[in-house]
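Notebook, student rotation project (T.W.).
Task set for the rotation: take a protein with a known small-molecule partner, predict the structure of the complex, and write up what can be learned from the model alone. Partner molecule chosen: pyridoxal-5'-phosphate. Sequence and SMILES entered below by T.W., checked by me.
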Amino acid sequence: MSVQDQLKKIKGTIPPNVTLVAVSKTKPIEAVLEAYEAGQRDFGENYVQELISKQEVLPKDIRWHFIGHLQSNKVKMIAPFVHLIHGVDSVKLLEEINKQGAKLNRVVPCLLQIHIAKEESKFGFSYEECGEFISSGKLDSMKFVQVQGLMGMGTNTGELALLKKEYSELHTFYQKMREMQPAWTILSCGMSGDYLLAIEQGSNMVRIGSSIFGEREYQHKV
Ligand SMILES: *Cc1c(COP(=O)(O)O)cnc(C)c1O
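Predicted structure of the complex:
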């Protein structure tokens, strides 16, 4: 099936309140354009260099989501244009984004990443760390970041019961945080293999790559 057919098929399964981020990492410009021509505007990338080279040549109305692990020294490269940084996993990184936003006089939209998976290798705040940070009020002094919600990556497993538990806990926590941060609107979780489950558990932003663009031929090492 073509990218456009795959995209259409997936869109047909996603309720209108859920944003679909098409994850185009490792895929060529032509594949992004195909999806763009079918009306897709939100695209996700994991690697700063790849994001920048695509952003330079692709249409300017694309909303670029950075969904990978972001190193502090690379924030300044994407801060001028990025639509949403999903993987903010430390206060230090948030401070750097705030600093770069201030230089540009641009408020940079972000999500805090919560470590919900069983694997050690995934990044993110623990629930406790995130709760403490939000309660501390430190966010109020960061005028050039706008946290819009939370992001999580489930365990890399076919075990749906485990993923369901992880996503449902994340959603419960998201709702609890929203009592302190009523302006939050985004809960980003769910990928090709589990996005319907994630939506059932309350996700309103899904990040889908291989189901749209096909399997990735190579993997960058992070
Ligand atoms: C690659 C990636 C995705 C998309 O994964 P698929 O299984 O191809 O849909 C989603 N989120 C993050 C953070 C990723 O790195």
